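just leaving the lab so this will be short. below you get a single protein, a line of residues and a line of whole numbers that encode the local backbone shape. id like you to explain what the token line says about the fold, in plain words if possible. thanks a lot i owe you, the record is right below:

…
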Amino acid sequence: MNADGDRTQGAVRGAVPVPRGGGAVRCGPPTLAWRPVWCLVGLYAGVLTLLSARYGYHRDELYFLAAGRRLAWGYVDQPPLTPLLARGSTAMFGDSLVGLRVCATLAACATVLVVALVARELGGGRGAQLLAATLVALGGQVLAVGHMVSTATFDLLVWVVVSWLVLRVLRTRDGRWWPVAGVTAGIGLENKYLVVLLVAVLLASIGWVGPRAVLRDRWFAAGCVLALATAAPNLVWQAAHGWPQFTVARGISGADGAENRALLVPQQLIYLSPLFVPVWVAGWRRLWRDPELRWARAFAVAYPLLCAVVLAVGGKGYYTVPLLVVLLAAGCEPVLRWAGRGRAGLNRAGPGRVRRRRVLLAAAVALSAAVNAAITLPVLAPDDLAVPMALNQEQGEQLGWPELADAARQGWARIPAPDRTRAVLFTSNYGEAGALERYGPARGLPAPYSGHMSYADWGPPPDSATGPVLLVRQADASGIERHFTGCRTVARVDNGHGIDNEEQGAAVVLCAGGPATRWSVLWPRLRHAY
């Protein structure tokens, strides 16, 4: 062992070589670097918490809060876990932006910790574990979903945990990990259906390159049963409601499929960091070629297979990030050897080259941290977000919601007081509805209605609401006015920062004549899923 407590040469890369017949690895993985990894996780949690109150709610967070107030076993566009966690986080830590984002911070920290376990499972020593945890913590997509509550926040954690558990099965041939993996996948299905892609590509990859014996274990069947049982409540809800989530998925593919396909490859290069690409490429190469990791070769197959599936269905590029994280963890051990870790690495490269390589590695990590933080975290003044928003539109979607409520208050004030009991506040999308539900009561506004996503299930207004309609819509969504009469724009939304987000310039339209027909008749025409 070297001075850092890492095993040198072949031993640091894993346990004893796997027999050619595919038997289990008999000795355990390297010692876990508990102290440095936990210090990193604590620092990470502190930074995310300090920044969590800057800017404001994201549109999706406002929607999750609204859904959390209307708990169900499913929603039109998502399973119930994220709204449930949003409600639980605010109940435990306060009904505030900071309180809401505690659950996202905890999930991001857990992801970083599990990535260290993945690196260890793949034979990485203490240095590789810490490097893997550090690189993932600083990865752009991980920072983005760790900063705010989203389904992707918990989906990333589930994928990484399932990957770690499958690696344990493959390394030890102990099938008792399958039920744990099954329950984890089932929990993931209660959050986002994308975990099905992970399960599918991993099983296909194991079936192709082995070790196939793990799929014949009775514990594997038990894991499948537990996964379905855990996911059953939402699956039953979706079946009872005609599988609306598939309608949403078709809308995403139909509206954005061509763009998603064109961006898939470049997004693989930037989602963590362009400077981290050599690390995960080294990880892929190691998983594919290292005879001591022959048992983990399925993960080298799973990543390109997942990319092919995402490309075929027109899915979003970030769907592949969790498996990129696994490749990144696998690549940290060879990167440290390249940087001269241990006596063998030092002898091969020479002191001068080792120093240059270590400086280059440290510079890559520091530069990636600075750039990714500016793109994904609220570290800049809101007026300076034009450049970061070119790569991450979600930064701007955290601004302007109180100003939208102010504009709606101006419009509501134009409705004669006697007519307000029959008037309706209607929005074109769930972000606007969530903002008015959050900020409207303090401004004297009634509960909003919308035909978008699950808000459509929470309506319609009563048919007795025959008075004026105050419509809040995006600037380019004037077509919705055809469902109402006597419409005129009475206010515009200005977020005050000149940021061109989706609601900048949104119109507040007063339709004094009310709905064109009864709300119960009109509602199916107002319902939209994407």
User: Anything to note?
Assistant: The chain has a mean pLDDT of 92. Residues 79 and 476 are 30 Å apart (CA to CA). The chain has 20 helices and five strands. The first strand starts at residue 424 and ends at 427.
